[in-house]
Design goal:
The structure is a homodimer. By secondary structure, chain A is an alpha+beta fold. Helix content of chain A is 49%, strand content 19%. Chain A has 13 helices and ten strands. Chain A binds a DNA duplex through helix 3.
Amino acid sequence: MQLDERKTKILQAVIRNYLETGEPVGSRTISKYTDLNLSSATIRNEMADLEEMGYILQPHTSAGRIPSDKGYRFYVDTMMEAREREVVEMKELLLERQDKMEQMLKQMAKVLATNTQYATMISAPQIHHNKLKFIQLSRVAQGQILAVVVGEGNVIKNNILSVTQELDDETLLKLNMLLNTHLNGLSMEEINLGMIAALKAKAGIHSDIVGEVLDAVAETIKADEDLEIYTSGTNNIFRYPELADQERASRLISTLEEKQQLTELVRETFSEEEGSGIQVYIGDETPVSGMKDCSVVTATYELGEGVKGTIGIIGPKRMDYDKVIGMVRNMQSQLEDLYRDDK
Amino acid sequence: MQLDERKTKILQAVIRNYLETGEPVGSRTISKYTDLNLSSATIRNEMADLEEMGYILQPHTSAGRIPSDKGYRFYVDTMMEAREREVVEMKELLLERQDKMEQMLKQMAKVLATNTQYATMISAPQIHHNKLKFIQLSRVAQGQILAVVVGEGNVIKNNILSVTQELDDETLLKLNMLLNTHLNGLSMEEINLGMIAALKAKAGIHSDIVGEVLDAVAETIKADEDLEIYTSGTNNIFRYPELADQERASRLISTLEEKQQLTELVRETFSEEEGSGIQVYIGDETPVSGMKDCSVVTATYELGEGVKGTIGIIGPKRMDYDKVIGMVRNMQSQLEDLYRDDK
DNA sequence: GTTAGCACTCAATCGCGAGGAGTGCTAACA
DNA sequence: TGTTAGCACTCCTCGCGATTGAGTGCTAAC
């Protein structure tokens, strides 16, 4: 059987209605709700077909129909077109941005959460494939060296390392020059063993310091592996009865708290290469088990090559996909514009 | 009426029993539970007294008694003695500590949460009254200067500032020396207008740069005003039915998510100067409205003068105060020891 | 092909009564 | 005078059956 135009309309009506109310929707409702001018009986026939085709389902025999995952998927696919709205408020909020990327991301998560009424997450740009821009060693105290590493996109990492051997200012200066001239513009992966050996050789008697510094650099980078993720609007899940029962809510909240699990989600979105960078996971499709009962909309934003992060919105399956996709796309371009202006 | 020894024993028995079960406790239970060898009738008389005195209350006429806030308060006060336990696991977890304060604090929050089964929060040390230890300016790109500010306790802050005027290496070096020689060891408050004017004068033609840098320093410090707070174990609240209903849970979770509100809690604990630095807020006593139905145990840890943070545990009123206070005290001394060793 | 009508299904809701935990009070006892 | 056994009473909890009502599938008529 094929989805003719009428079936499509009815399906959309069912889904849209369910999105609004969260209740199973019956044939009578559709009959009045749409402009099809069909009686409830006709709708019933069509709905029986749609159910057979797997787009909708009944929680129990004498209830209305609710969309199945397949139904949601259809809805999302047929609706994945551009949308421009709610730009204003965001622009405004972005104007009072801080230079601190972190603060800004937190604020973005919040804006998204209050606007969508869903839970949101946003990951800080990953430095992983990032290029080194600048390294600076300074002595802050006896035996303590401060190492500052700056990457493409001004991602800054600090590290304090203890050294056994005292360094005078001149040596420190030389080391700084050595490190910068040799490492600048390299990505983390390009700093391999041969490189390290060469550097150590050039450092002469301070080779062990170089070793320590490079370790610190590596550690600095690695510390970023379990990347920063900010969440907001967690409590929004209580707005949706189908997620708010104790068991589900508890699971979801701990999932959102465990950044480890969200990392999984971020990785997944990175791996899926697609035009717009927007992904929609419905129910079981999501890579994170704690979100089986939800839908997740993610977008990848890219600030420079290899420097990218993820925006995610987590809500009930009956989320307002249309709006959410619009918002997420918006946020994505905001972030990218912001970076370009900054540059 | 006075709390004689027998009443005290009965009150403690009631509270302890309620802590375990979460159910109102009746006279019969107490009669068997304690070693007082009194019949349930006698206990009933005593319980009636205790209720009249406000230590316990009945949810409804034919139910057992549960502790009132006053009852909890009494219990906590009579029990506020040292306790040493669960040191082992923490020690172990602390061994694999990172230099990154942030990572460590997050981990601590987690350890506390899994150990206590309550929600936990921990605030990063406040830099507010902190002394400057080191300032470093470096040029990272055309027109971009990286300012790194290190405070007592190795609290590091970065800031990238755009400058209109190009600086050569020598000038930068001079500026660095100037800033460090004049500002080191000063607290944020001590850098006043006169100071700034003097510095600008000495910087000569680069006075505007100095201005920008000091602005950046100020901003850097101010960004820390809404201080970092890490939470963990939020979903633990679902373990306690009296907190797990939708309304309460939602409120609590958003309170825990809104760091702003937790900041309030931190400030409160700072203002209450007390010997051990441990505070117990029961029910309405807490300064954060979202936690009216909970009890909150907080401890202040101090790493250096003016550099202090807060550990907090949020749970039901029937929390195991004994254990929690032990844990918190423990964590407090761990943190302080850790810092001393590090120094 | 569409629709009206009807019998049927089944979750949700309500009312009600039994059960039971716990109390307060009284009277008897040591 | 303090303690205790006994009893009537309260009131929450739980389970059960009846009721309700939304929604369906099917059939027959248009």
